[in-house]
Amino acid sequence: MTRTLLLALLAGVVAPAAVSAQPPADCRPSALNIPGAPYPCVLPDNRVMFRVAAPEAQKVRIRVGKGFDMTKEADGLWHATTTPLPLGFHYYTVQVDGAIVADPATRSFFGGGWWNGAIEIPDPDGAYFAPQDVPHGEVRQRWYHSSITQTWRRAYVYTPPGYDHDAKTKYPVLYLLHGWGENEQGWHVQGQVDLIMDNLIAAGKARPMIIVMDNLNAVKPGESAALYFARGVLTQAVPEPPPTPGAPPAVRRGPLGSTVFTDMMLTDLIPMVEKTYRVAPGRENRAMAGLSMGGFQTFTTALAHLDRFAYIGGFSGSTGGRGDFDLKTAHDGVFADAAAFNKKVKVLFLGIGSEEGPGTKAFSEKLTQAGIHNVFFESAGTAHEWLTWRRSFREFAPLLFR
Amino acid sequence: MTRTLLLALLAGVVAPAAVSAQPPADCRPSALNIPGAPYPCVLPDNRVMFRVAAPEAQKVRIRVGKGFDMTKEADGLWHATTTPLPLGFHYYTVQVDGAIVADPATRSFFGGGWWNGAIEIPDPDGAYFAPQDVPHGEVRQRWYHSSITQTWRRAYVYTPPGYDHDAKTKYPVLYLLHGWGENEQGWHVQGQVDLIMDNLIAAGKARPMIIVMDNLNAVKPGESAALYFARGVLTQAVPEPPPTPGAPPAVRRGPLGSTVFTDMMLTDLIPMVEKTYRVAPGRENRAMAGLSMGGFQTFTTALAHLDRFAYIGGFSGSTGGRGDFDLKTAHDGVFADAAAFNKKVKVLFLGIGSEEGPGTKAFSEKLTQAGIHNVFFESAGTAHEWLTWRRSFREFAPLLFR
Questions:
Q1: CB contact under 8 A, B238 and A21
Q2: How many CB pairs under 8 A join A and B?
Q3: Residue of A143, A150, A385 to mutate for B, most B C-beta atoms under 10 A
Q4: What is the ipTM of this complex?
Q5: CATH 2.60.120.580 describes domain B2-122
Q6: Cβ atoms within 10 A of the Cβ of B380, count?
Q7: How large is the average pLDDT for residues A131-151?
Q8: Cα separations in angstroms, A96 against A49, A237, A252, B60
Q9: Whether the Cβ atoms of residue B296 and residue B318 lie closer than 8 Å to each other
Q10: pLDDT for A217 beyond 90
Q11: Most buried one in A160, A271, B2, B94, CB count within 10 A?
Q12: Which residue of chain A has the CA closest to B153?
């Protein structure tokens, strides 16, 4: 866009560009497209039509779950139509002569370690994550300084409807974590968790609560975050060296969770939240949950500090889903005494997509056989993706702080 | 990223990828890069080194202000080094065999009508827009329903430090608009306006205030937003038809401003803000400003409603910068009586980058000659870009509500 053309547009002397090649009338633009972009669009059977401009390219591909070669049509643009896709939010990439990039036709989201395109296959049951005519809470950007990481960090804080208009009420708090390669914006941007909560609260299905969404990336000064952000490096397509057997990981990690994050959360984040917001005190007003890597982190943090948390949730990420998990010894034996565990942990929630494999269900059954109360939820037809996590959250939130 | 690799990363069995081709030690990664990305990087003389992976491409170019051909080096990647770039935030594009895309190495920002990459050339004077050890306000995402557009809209609202801890104080409000092809996130994401305000307030240079950032795109049901978002269509590279002489514009617009936006703002946005936040009443507690198209919109809205606004700012976008502007008749003659205008308008602020041409300065001088008080600010060495607008805001905010 030249400045001349911009000024011409501002002055109204250039008529808006007509789109000469519209998709079929029954192909509806994805809700995640930039305004005005007709492609990608979703056909009634959930096949998706993509279109990409790459005038001089030799080979263009779309990867959305699996890869689809595009073909150059008479309009000079590259086209592909997929097989039917699952419902929900899917990241996808465009490959132009080997360059892996985001489709400029969609909004970009931080996922997979970079700013990626995405498509939304409409869920007929999706009203629960859409804006409805109900009171709305806020999502607040909150800067704070961490003494552990020695950096300014940014969290997002959901406050429920009415928070500002009753200066006395104190609220329970859920600490909610994103997954690998995502960030503190994942839950409200991709997950639409604020809208889910607004709708649950309006329906009387969940208690009003504060939700704190922070970034899993927490390293001490001088440490590298390369493991967490490996995809970021990979997008630069530097040839990946073979794994070095026995090489130390770049980030100090507990069993699938960062001990630095736990320290940061307990030392800096929770005190900041409790000083800044009207928070009800005590462990029975404090929950922790996360998806994928954020679920692993939740179990690492919360099981080691049950004096601080009474509610635990893992969505497509928990602990013990690998088969070799020893209930007697894992996590310092916290599961060894079922009665004691059940007394402390009010809700232990395990969510998973039906297409993600049997590990989480087997873990839930193993817990149940050992007498440990837990709630298992399986999202039908979804994989390791945001619709699994939106649905898991919808099931989990109503159980909290009862 | 395959699920297998993801799980391997989570399990810590894959060592983080080493970057084999680091940039020169004096080339510092742009602050806007995704974490871990070494390129693009900025050399001491503000030349920028870019690197792009496009293994099978024939031609790769970077466009940042002007175009730079990239060359494929021995590492199999495409490289380019620019001439020295101006300070500040610049959107840029990568062209891979004709496909115009965002560089996957950087964060993406909504600018130019799509989610684009950007680079930040460090400003030695940039502490004013960086997080400092001062009290921080919040930026709040606020959903509301518009009766004019019949849609749910999203605004962002800056509340100053301490807003939550003193339930009595009421604050003046600045309505602050983004430019063409940007959205309601532009001012706090690209502009870092919340950090600028935090720092100004902490230094005692600006009064604590609420800042409301909304989206210029406001159309009535059934109307097209195609003009506002024309670049969005262009990214699909549909050949642009020649302008049709006399064709009606897609969006009803006043002189460089949308009357629908004005209606929406007065009917829906301002009442929502004044109901939701602790807002000091009256026109002398209400300001409006914007950049580029948002500046034009500010003049269209505010000059027609001086009963509502006492402070007006335009940054690289005002009214009257074209030479044929008639002070006696324009905007229903609001400038015709200088004394009356000066009594009503406490501050009329015109900001511009020194590289943007002489129109705004000439307009300021014309106003001054006619006896109309105004403040002119020129940002040295900057063009139609965010550093001009950050600096303009830093000059404008201290003048408000005195």
A1: yes
A2: 305
A3: A143
A4: 0.90
A5: no
A6: 10
A7: 97
A8: 17, 14, 37, 11
A9: yes
A10: no
A11: B94
A12: A131
Global confidence as pTM: 0.91
* Binned average pLDDT, 10 residues per bin, chain B of 402 residues: 40 35 90 90 98 95 96 94 97 95 94 92 97 97 96 97 92 96 96 98 98 92 62 35 39 59 96 97 97 93 97 91 81 95 98 94 95 98 96 98 96
CB contact under 8 A, B235 and A39: no
Considering only CB atoms, which chain A residues are within 8 Å of B180? 6, 9-10
Question: Which of A2, A10, A277 best probes binding to B when mutated, by most B CB atoms within 10 angstroms?
Answer: A10
Q: Is residue B106 within 8 Å of residue B32, measured between CB atoms?
A: yes
Structural fold of domain A128-399: Rossmann fold (3.40.50)
Structure tokens at B41: 């990087």
Q: Is the dihedral of CA A203, A206, A207, A209 positive or negative?
A: negative
CA-closest candidate to residue A190, choices A106, A132, A313: A106
Per DSSP, helices labelled H in A217-358 are 230-234, 259-264, 270-276, 293-303, 330-333, 338-344
SS3 state at A109 = strand
Task: Please state the domain extents for chain B.
Answer: 2-122, 128-399
pLDDT band for position A344 (50/70/90)?
Answer: very high
Output the six-digit token pair for B162: 């301490």
Q: Do A97 and B296 touch (CB under 8 A)?
A: no
Looking at the DSSP bridge assignments, the partners of residue A289 are A176, A313
Whose CA is closest to B32, among B95, B96, B92?
B92
Pick the residue from chain A with its C-alpha nearest to B143: A136
pLDDT value for A252: 37
**Using alpha carbons only, what angle is made at residue A347 by residues A219 and A324, rounded to the nearest 5 degrees?**
65
